[in-house]
Amino acid sequence: MTTPSSPSIGAQLAAEIDARRDDLVALTQDLIRIPTVNPPGNNYREVCDYLAKRLKKSGYTVEMIRAEGAVGDIDKYPRWNLVARREGKAPGETVHFNSHHDVVEVGRGWTFDPFGGELRDGRIYGRGTCDMKGGLATSIVAAEAFAAVVPDYRGAIEISGTADEETGGYGGVAYLAEKGYFSPERVQHVIIPEPLNKDRICLGHRGVWWAEIETFGRIAHGSMPFLGDSAIRHMAAVLRQFEDVLYPALSLKHTAMPVVPPGARQSTMNINSVHGGQAEPEGGYTGFPAPVVAHSARIVIDRRYLIEESPAAVRQEVIDLLERLKSERTGFSYEIRDLWTIPPTMTDREAPVVRSVAKAIGAVMGVSPEYVVSPGTYDQKHIDRIGRLKNCIAYGPGILDLAHQPDEWVGVDDMLDSAKVMALTLLDLLGPAR
Ligand SMILES: [Zn+2]
User: Fold this and answer.
1) pLDDT band at 379 (very low <50, low <70, confident <90, very high)
2) Ligand 1 centroid to residue 194 C-alpha, Å
3) FRET label pair with 29: which of 252, 264, 334, 394, CA 20 to 30 Å apart?
4) Domain layout of the chain by residue ranges
5) What is the 3-state secondary structure (H, E, C) of the chain?
6) Does the pLDDT of residue 2 top 60, yes or no?
7) Is the CATH code 3.30.70.360 the one for domain 207-276+289-342?
8) Distance from Cα 137 to the centre of ligand 1, integer Å
9) Per-residue pLDDT tens for 262-290?
10) Level-2 CATH architecture, domain 9-205+344-430
């Protein structure tokens, strides 16, 4: 029963979170001031130590896990992860908030100190404020406020700070998933507070296929190219096929996935690089290039595909073009090497964590959430595929477009609103039977 003199639990949670505004700002600033730039993966231990201290004080049991043997883990740059768990007072489910603690390089164009965490006009500025230390701090404060207002909750809350999301997550969530940290027996709901905007629920992401294609030629003197065979001209024929055939075909493949921005609601492909002929000279070389016909040319393609496409068909589409060139073009030969494949993933809109967060967004902001899908992948791929957990979304404060930009920022009011959504979600999923 609620009476005017005893505000509803929702109102108590909101008041508790508003009262923690300064703490939320300070926590975000502290995290920004530990520069966890990746690559190479600086200060991972320091950020995990900081989080461990904070969460132990709040009643969490903390595990520090180094991703020994994972891609990128070396003694100079160890891949440290933190998983913290706070048990409730009765059996129940586990809600896990997963944030990556690494940030991308600074780049040019900053007017703020990228690791200063300056607060100005309600925004905190710095590398990683938006993507995604602001989200990490928000989930911590939301969980602390929830435990203060609802000390007799059921189940457990978990918070993780994980490495290497920006470089594929193999020293982070993928490693933890392989060790069982995201198995459905241990964790039932996962929220990844990536900056998708406070009123949007991100259900998943498109698929990825990266491959390297190499064409071959025969080296000869550049003054007599007819005595050789140019791998670069063969590669030019590949690129012409892409322009004339592949790109028009990709633009016709549309998806029912609500990908944002809408330009990514179709199949896309980027050509990451073109290399051919003579290698780049070493720095300091001041001479001319030598006249030679290129015996090799390589490109790396980054194909993003839709839930309606199969990875085999995506690959075959490119192979078909290459095979056609092989049959039509004298001297054409190629190799293709698969570099990386991640299938698309999309959590059902009726999944429990989606319904619960949607309800909370409605209660806090008075709107229905927008359901979106990310054009690129994030750590949900490992939770889904290795962890086998389908009840996973990205939800967090921050404006997606600001990620990786100069003068990246996160709004304090947005973090508070998101924290209220997260706390209400915990109440919905772990609240005691009353
Ligand atoms: Zn991120």
Assistant:
1) very high
2) 5
3) 394
4) 9-205+344-430, 207-276+289-342
5) CCECCECCHHHHHHHHHHHCHHHHHHHHHHHHCCCCECCCCCCHHHHHHHHHHHHHHCCCEEEEEECCCCCCCCCCCCCEEEEEEEECCEEEEEEEEEEECCECCCCCCCCCCCCCCCEECCEEECCCHHHHHHHHHHHHHHHHHHHHHCCCCEEEEEEEEECCHHHCCCCCHHHHHHCCCCCCCCCCEEEECCCCCCCEEEEEECEEEEEEEEEECECCECCCHHHCECHHHHHHHHHHHHHHHHHHHHHCCECCCCECCHHHCECEEEEEEEEECCCCCCCCCCCCCCCECCCEEEEEEEEEECCCCCHHHHHHHHHHHHHHHHHHCCCCCEEEEEEEEECCEECCCCCHHHHHHHHHHHHHHCCCCEEEEECCCCCHHHHHHCCCCCCEEECCCCCHHHCCCCCCEEEHHHHHHHHHHHHHHHHHHHCCCC
6) no
7) yes
8) 14
9) 999 999 999 999 999 988 888 999 999 99
10) 3-Layer(aba) Sandwich (3.40)
How many Å lie between the centroid of ligand 1 and the Cα of residue 135? Answer: 9
Q: What is the whole-number distance in angstroms between the Cα of residue 31 and the centre of ligand 1? A: 14
pLDDT of the residue at 279: 87
Is the pTM here over 0.85, yes or no? yes
C-alpha 397 to ligand 1 mean position (Å) = 12
For residue 128, how far is its CA from the centre of ligand 1 (angstroms)?
Answer: 8
Mean pLDDT (the chain) is: 96
List pLDDT tens digits, range 206-236. Answer: 999 999 999 999 999 999 999 999 999 999 9
Measured in angstroms, how far is the CA atom of residue 378 from the centroid of ligand 1? 7
